[in-house]
Specification:
The structure is a homodimer of 256-residue chains.
Chain A lengths: L12 H14 L12 H8 L3 H13 L3 E4 L3 E4 L14 H7 L4 E11 L3 H6 L8 E10 L2 E11 L6 H4 L6 H9 L5 E10 L2 H7 L6 E10 L5 E10 L5 E6 L13
Antiparallel strand pairs in A: 1-2, 3-4, 4-5, 5-8, 6-7, 7-8
Helix pairs in contact in A: 1-3, 2-3
Chain A binds a DNA duplex (19 and 19 nucleotides) through helix 3.
Chain lengths: 256, 256
DNA sequence: TAGTGGTCTAGACCACGGC
DNA sequence: CCGTGGTCTAGACCACTAC
């Protein structure tokens, strides 16, 4: 019987319960495929309401640590949790997430007329201009990718003054403009490195590469950034976790 | 003021509310960045409890259709919902999802000693044997990928008798063995088509291709299938939606 | 029948934002 | 200050599973 729950201090009860259950599972108190004590028992034992325990358990189900079966119980999944889901991450965050030190070399930074693709992606009006930020990205002095970001000048007017090549662009957007990126849509294709890409990435010509096209949005759906990147294929791979889908909430008219 | 909610018939109230709100948003009753009526008002207007409305709204937030701000309200996101998240999908489901007809050509189907990689991925004991299913996958008679699936013989002993090359393998696993796949872990790399791959996929040699390595699990974490696939790069691309991460529930000892 | 998870109620209080 | 969403309670009933 471990520590009591703290009521009224910062952390909500359900998050404390969630953390405690996660700790116990990772410590091996419960084994995979074994049932957790029932919600009623956990609630009684911890002195909280059943709804509060449910909230904790639901979160742990969503990340695949538990699964519930009506009428049977809640069970421990044996899924290894080292592999996380992919999220919206800046290059800097992603590098640090696997223990490397990120930095970047600026190739160019200018204000331009957007390409038609960028204009459409950022929903720009005729005549709107964009910042175009062209960089090579490194992890521990190893070149990993070439990135070309476009952002509307109107969204971050003095970006050229405040931009620091060694700070995450996303941090600057949050700090100075209150722009929080919530969702990224990406398309991933494969290609071959052309001469310039091969030189910048220090790989042979024609080497296979990943081609990313990403558009990032604020919570309300306004597009912020349109990025096209080339990642070297010999030093970069994508790790993903996918879960079985729930039924879509979209109407039939949206199914082509 | 539309239809009333149906109490006590199949669908839970919160799902009916969720569907109704989704319909209204897609019909343009509410515009992006506009606030939804407050939870209290929706609850009063629909004659249900606040918790029930919250449950509906929470689901819509999770798919990016709404977002909530404490103290301010709940707002409509302008994110286009045609682009869905990626899930665990069979090749057949994926093909049908974008309107193509899937089928496959069997190259070989045998019982073998697993490779060391497969043995580790499926947590097999020494001496365990696997089914090895080698196929070319087509969408509308266009070859898309070469797939090599391995499944433990002990998990689906008479697979060779019941397998039908034109039915989804996943459906058979569910039908005959009650095996439901819940989670897939995948690693995506790039490569160049070798001679045999180029021939089977009808692309030039050295063409860039996607290399997928996937392991699929049941809910309880038991591995079921280990797959290595080669997808042609000129006819296949990956579309993804990523969301900003919530804080991890893992302890510090798991951060490398 | 007993025990489980799933849904739902009618409140309560808190934290936060804007006025 | 008020209105908002976020958390929490102490129950209730239902649906499902197992015995």
């Amino acid at each position: 019987m471990p520590l009591p729950l703290h009521r009224g201090n910062g952390l909500p009860l359900y998050q404390q319960i969630q953390q405690r259950l996660a700790d116990q599972i990772q410590a091996g108190v419960f084994k995979p495929s074994e049932p957790l004590p029932s919600i009623q028992k956990i609630a009684a034992q911890m002195g909280v309401s059943q709804m509060t325990v449910r909230q904790a358990i639901k979160s742990l189900c969503e990340i695949g640590m538990l699964y519930s079966r009506q009428g049977k119980g809640t069970f421990i999944s044996g899924i290894k949790l080292e592999k996380e889901f992919r999220h919206v991450l800046s290059f800097s965050e992603e590098a640090r997430a696997h223990g490397a030190t990120p930095h970047s070399r600026l190739l160019s930074f200018s204000i331009q007329k957007p390409s038609e693709e960028t204009r459409a992606a950022l929903a720009l009006a005729d005549g709107d201009r964009v910042f175009r930020l062209h960089r090579v990205r490194y992890e521990d002095s190893l070149p990993i990718s070439i990135e070309c970001s476009c952002l509307a000048v109107s969204a971050c007017p003095d970006l050229m003054e405040i931009f620091d090549p060694d700070t995450s662009l996303y941090e600057r957007l949050a700090d100075h403009y209150g722009i929080q990126l919530a969702i990224t849509e990406e398309v991933i294709e494969v290609g071959k490195a052309n001469m310039e890409e091969a030189r910048l990435l220090q790989v042979p010509r024609q080497s296979p590469v990943f081609l990313f096209t990403r558009v990032s949005f604020r919570e309300d759906g306004r597009p912020v950034e349109h990025v096209k990147s080339t990642y070297r294929g010999d030093r970069y791979k994508i790790v993903n976790r996918l879960m079985r889908t729930r039924r879509s909430v979209l109407g039939a008219s949206h199914i082509l």
